[in-house]
C-alpha cells in the first residue's frame, strides 16, 4: 500500500500500516535491517512488526521517555509528537479523514464490534450504573482513583486534605454543567484531586500532579486521529444529520449507544475538538493510579484495577468506546513511565514514597503495612477479591480486539518502562524489572497494542506478580532490613522458561504460581517459601543456606528432580493424611548441616505414638543433622528408610 498523507485543516497525520514515512521505513534495497534491541537494553530506536507478522518497519530517533515533552497541541503528527507516534497502532483500525466525520475504518469488523460493545453495555446499564458513571465523569480523576487504596483510602484523604464536591448524581438530566470543587465546610487548605501539596501527604499529591503535568494531555492525540465518540455515530445522531455510522462507512446496526441522562448536558457541542480516541478520563485515571501505586505499592494492583473501573465507566456512560479507553491506558502507561524515569523528578518520587510509607506506618501502627492494607473483605474493600480484579483487568486489556494467532513479533520493552515497577519490585535492578515486563507482556497480534515501542503490550498487573519466564538464570537478592517488599514478597505468576532461580539475601520470597521453569532453584540465604505444589518448577533444587519452607497452602509438593540440603533448613508442615508432604522424584541428598523444622497441621492434633510420613524420594542419602518440632509437650523421632522419612510423635 502506498503511503497516504491526509490533511486535517492545518494538521497532517500519516495513516495506514505502511505509511509511517519518516517514522518507520523499510530498509532500502541492499541494506540490512537493524537488529531488534534486547529487552534489557533501553535504546532510542527499535522495530515493530505488523500484526500479521509480515514486513518489519524500523524507526529511529528519541524514545518516548526522552521525547514526551513534545506532547502538545502544537505538534500533531507522529514525527513531531511522541504521544501520537506511540498510538499509531490505531492506524490498523482507523483511517483519519480530512474532517471529524469523514474518516473510515481500516478494520471494519473490529470497529463494528467496538460500537456493538458500547451499545450492549449502555443498553444494559442500570440507574445506579448511570449515576456512578456521572460521578466518575464529573469528579476529579485523581480523587476518583483513591478508592483503590482500600483500607488506606480514608487515611489518605485525611492526610492529604483531599476533598470533592461530586459525591452523588442527580436523578435525571441536570440543569447545566457540573464541575468538581472544594465543598463548603472542607478543612482549611483542602484541595480537590490528590489533595494539598502542603499537607502531610503533600509529596504524594505533588507526584500525582507531576504525572498529570503539562505534557500529559490526550487532546493532541484526539485532534490528530479524529475518531468520533460512540454516541456521535448513532443512526439518529443530531450532530450527524445524515446518520453517523453510514457516513463513517460502517455497516448499520440496530442498537444505538445511549449516553447516561445525567451526562447529556455535560457533552461538548464541538465534535471537531472532541474526539473519542484516546479517552482523556481513562488517561487521567491511569496516570493518577500509577502515581499512587508508586508511592503506595502495597496497593499496586488494586490501584490499576480501580483505574480500569474508572475507564470502563466511560463506556458505561456512552461517552467512549473500548478502543478509546485502551488508548487512554496505553498513553498513560508511557506518560507515567516518562515522569518516573525522568531524573528531574528523582527527588520527588523518592520523597513521595518515603512520605507515604512513614505516614501510613505511623497512622496504622502496622509492622506489616501490606497485610494491614489488605485486612478488609469485599464488603468494605471493593478490591479485596484479587481474582475478580485480575479477571476484569485482563479482559479490558484487549476488550473486543481479536488476536492474529500467527503474529510472532518479539517483545521489546520500551525504554524507561521499568521505572513504574521501581517501588513494587525494589529488590530487582532495572534490567531485571525490564525482563519482568517483557516476560509478562501480552502476546503479539493485537491491533493498537503494537504501535512503536509496544507500550500497549505491557501488562502491569501481571508484572507486579513477578517474572513470567526465566529465559536466563535469575538471582534475586533481598535485604530484609529495608522492610516492605525487600523483606517479604510473593510471586504469583506462572513461571516458565529454561532458566534457574537463585534466592540470595536475608528477605523472604514466596513462589505461588504453577511453575515449569527448568533450570532449578538454589537457596543461598533468607527464606524461599513454596505456596503451590509446582512452585519450585521442574529442575533440581538445592538449599545451601537459609530456609526452604513448604507452606501448608502448597499441599503436597512434588519435585520433578532431586533435592540437596547442605547447611540449610527445610521447614515443613505435616498432617495426618498418611501421604508425604514432599515427594522427590530423584535423590534427596542430606549433607552436613541439613536441618528439618516441623510444624503439625493445626487441624489435626497430635497423638502420642503416631507416625506421620514427611518425605518420599527415589532414594534418601544421609540424615538430617538436626530436627525440631514446633509443638509444646511433644517431640519428633525420625524413622528413615531408603525411600521415606517418617516421624513418630512422642510426649516430651
Automatic annotation (TrEMBL):
NCBIfam families: autotrns_rpt (TIGR02601)
UniProt xrefs under PROSITE patterns: TAT
Protein name: Phosphatase PAP2 family protein
Sorted UniProt keywords: Signal
UniProt xrefs under InterPro entries: Autotrns_rpt, PAP2/HPO, PAP2/HPO_sf, Pectin_lyase_fold/virulence, TAT_signal
Keyword flag Signal: yes
Entry keyword Signal: yes
Record's signal peptide: 1-28
Domain Phosphatidic acid phosphatase type 2/haloperoxidase: 205-340
Species annotation: Glycomyces albidus
Amino acid at each position: 500500500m502506498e503511503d497516504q498523507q491526509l490533511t486535517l485543516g492545518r494538521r497532517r497525520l500519516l495513516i495506514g500500516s505502511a505509511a509511517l514515512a519518516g517514522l518507520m521505513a523499510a530498509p532500502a534495497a541492499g541494506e540490512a535491517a537493524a537488529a531488534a534491541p534486547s529487552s534489557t537494553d533501553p535504546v532510542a530506536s527499535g522495530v515493530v512488526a505488523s500484526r500479521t507478522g509480515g514486513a518489519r518497519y524500523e524507526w529511529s530517533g528519541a524514545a518516548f521517555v526522552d521525547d514526551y515533552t513534545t506532547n502538545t497541541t502544537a505538534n500533531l503528527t507522529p514525527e513531531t509528537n511522541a504521544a501520537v507516534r506511540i498510538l499509531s497502532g490505531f492506524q490498523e483500525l482507523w483511517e483519519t479523514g480530512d474532517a471529524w466525520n469523514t474518516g473510515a475504518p481500516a478494520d471494519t469488523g473490529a470497529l463494528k464490534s467496538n460500537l456493538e460493545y458500547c451499545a450492549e453495555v449502555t443498553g444494559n446499564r442500570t440507574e445506579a450504573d448511570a449515576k456512578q458513571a456521572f460521578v466518575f465523569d464529573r469528579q476529579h480523576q485523581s480523587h476518583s482513583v483513591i478508592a483503590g487504596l482500600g483500607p488506606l483510602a480514608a487515611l489518605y484523604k485525611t492526610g492529604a486534605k483531599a476533598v470533592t464536591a461530586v459525591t452523588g448524581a442527580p436523578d435525571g438530566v441536570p440543569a447545566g454543567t457540573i464541575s468538581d470543587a472544594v465543598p463548603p465546610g472542607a478543612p482549611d487548605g483542602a484541595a480537590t484531586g490528590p489533595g494539598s501539596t502542603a499537607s502531610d501527604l503533600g509529596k504524594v499529591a505533588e507526584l500525582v500532579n507531576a504525572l498529570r503535568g503539562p505534557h500529559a494531555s490526550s487532546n493532541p492525540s484526539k485532534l490528530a486521529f479524529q475518531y468520533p465518540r460512540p454516541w456521535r455515530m448513532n443512526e439518529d445522531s443530531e450532530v450527524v444529520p445524515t446518520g453517523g455510522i453510514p457516513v463513517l462507512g460502517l455497516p448499520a446496526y440496530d442498537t444505538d449507544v445511549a449516553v447516561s441522562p445525567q451526562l447529556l448536558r455535560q457533552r461538548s457541542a464541538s465534535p471537531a475538538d472532541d474526539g473519542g480516541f484516546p479517552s482523556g478520563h481513562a488517561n487521567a485515571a491511569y496516570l493518577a493510579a500509577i502515581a499512587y501505586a508508586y508511592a503506595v505499592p502495597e496497593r499496586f494492583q488494586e490501584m490499576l484495577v480501580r483505574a480500569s473501573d474508572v475507564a470502563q465507566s466511560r463506556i458505561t456512560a456512552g461517552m467512549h468506546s473500548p478502543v478509546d479507553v485502551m488508548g487512554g491506558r496505553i498513553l498513560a502507561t508511557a506518560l507515567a513511565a516518562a515522569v518516573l524515569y525522568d531524573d528531574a523528578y528523582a527527588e520527588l518520587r523518592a520523597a513521595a514514597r518515603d512520605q507515604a510509607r512513614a505516614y501510613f506506618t505511623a497512622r496504622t501502627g502496622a509492622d506489616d503495612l501490606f497485610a494491614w492494607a489488605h485486612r478488609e473483605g469485599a464488603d468494605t474493600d471493593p478490591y479485596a477479591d484479587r481474582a475478580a480484579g485480575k479477571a476484569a483487568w485482563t479482559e479490558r486489556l484487549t476488550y473486543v480486539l481479536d488476536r492474529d494467532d500467527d503474529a510472532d513479533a518479539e517483545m521489546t520493552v520500551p525504554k524507561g518502562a521499568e521505572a513504574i515497577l521501581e517501588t513494587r519490585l525494589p529488590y530487582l535492578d532495572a534490567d531485571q524489572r525490564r525482563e519482568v515486563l517483557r516476560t509478562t507482556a501480552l502476546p503479539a497480534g493485537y491491533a493498537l497494542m503494537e504501535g512503536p515501542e509496544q507500550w500497549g503490550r505491557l501488562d502491569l498487573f501481571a508484572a507486579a506478580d513477578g517474572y513470567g519466564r526465566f529465559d536466563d538464570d535469575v538471582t534475586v537478592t533481598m535485604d530484609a532490613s529495608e522492610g516492605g517488599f525487600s523483606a517479604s514478597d510473593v510471586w504469583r505468576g506462572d513461571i516458565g522458561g529454561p532458566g534457574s532461580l537463585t534466592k540470595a539475601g536475608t528477605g523472604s520470597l514466596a513462589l505461588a504460581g504453577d511453575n515449569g521453569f527448568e533450570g532449578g532453584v538454589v537457596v543461598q540465604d533468607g527464606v524461599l517459601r513454596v505456596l503451590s505444589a509446582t512452585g519450585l518448577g521442574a529442575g533440581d533444587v538445592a538449599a545451601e543456606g537459609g530456609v526452604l519452607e513448604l507452606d501448608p497452602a502448597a499441599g503436597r509438593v512434588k519435585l520433578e528432580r532431586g533435592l540437596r540440603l547442605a547447611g540449610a533448613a527445610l521447614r515443613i508442615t505435616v498432617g495426618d493424611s498418611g501421604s508425604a508432604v514432599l515427594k522427590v522424584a530423584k535423590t534427596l541428598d542430606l549433607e552436613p548441616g541439613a536441618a528439618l523444622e516441623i510444624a503439625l497441621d493445626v487441624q489435626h492434633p497430635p497423638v502420642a505414638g503416631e507416625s506421620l510420613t514427611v518425605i518420599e524420594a527415589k532414594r534418601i542419602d544421609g540424615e538430617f543433622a538436626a530436627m525440631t518440632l514446633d509443638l509444646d509437650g511433644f517431640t519428633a523421632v525420625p524413622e528413615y528408610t531408603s525411600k521415606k522419612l517418617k516421624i513418630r510423635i512422642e510426649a516430651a
